[in-house]
Amino acid sequence: MSLNPIKTERKGHILAVTLDRPKANAIDLATSRIMGEVFTEFRDDPDLRVAIVTGAGEKFFCPGWDLKAAACGDAVDGDYGKGGFGGLQELRGLNKPVVAAVNGICCGGGLELALSADMILAADHATFALPEIRSGTVADAASLKLPKRIPYHIAMEMLFTGRWLEAEEAARWGLINHTYPANDLMSEAWKLAELLASGPPLVYAAIKEIVREAEDMKFQDAMNRITKSQFATVETLYRSEDEKEGARAFAEKRDPVWKGQ
């Protein structure tokens, strides 16, 4: 799979997706639609288990919406394609782990793209912000997600003032998982992806569905749905060969061999 301005690399069960739009890796409508196709293919390919999303170069991960394209006619309410902005934000049924490797400036819709991942690694020079307030608009997805990910008052400060966070502070507030020297970022992202790819894909799917669907449910209601196998992924897991393999491997004191079946 090789698309411009999206470059992909497939290695085993892992798909690396690189946003490559000089000079800043901004996303226009056409790019968003391509990303939607790429991530939909990732979701639907049973042999792919983990995705990494990153940006080309060392300065920008992604600044979000391409304002130059907007000035030339791209409508802010135009067709972003499958999965909404950046292909991840609203992609339904994505029950596989996604790792964001933030290699530089990550702001606006770029931060919203990173927030769509399950884990965020960052180069130690990366910076994060939601500057929409300064142009008189709203960071819509971030307004929904950020106050649930980091302390409310820090999230509201970012949304209200557009101030920038250095990588160290972003890690301190739990916005990102880890920081690394820039030269080590992608090797660490691949290491994490390989660890995840060696794990049980049906369990990951169940975890992601439970976390997503139970977000606004009462605890006991969510537990009842789990124990009664009312989540499709949980039902699949409990009837799978992988579930039996996990028990066998434990009893036999060996590493399990996950097949996703």
UniProtKB/TrEMBL annotation:
InterPro entries: ClpP/crotonase-like_dom_sf (IPR029045), Enoyl-CoA_hyd/isom_CS (IPR018376), Enoyl-CoA_hydra/iso (IPR001753), Enoyl-CoA_hydra_C (IPR014748). GO terms for biological process: fatty acid beta-oxidation. CDD domains: crotonase-like. Keywords: Lyase. One of its GO terms (molecular function) is lyase activity. Pfam families: ECH_1. SUPFAM superfamilies: ClpP/crotonase. It comes from the Bacteria. The keyword S-adenosyl-L-methionine does not apply. Belongs to the enoyl-CoA hydratase/isomerase family. This is Crotonobetainyl-CoA hydratase. It comes from Roseibium hamelinense.
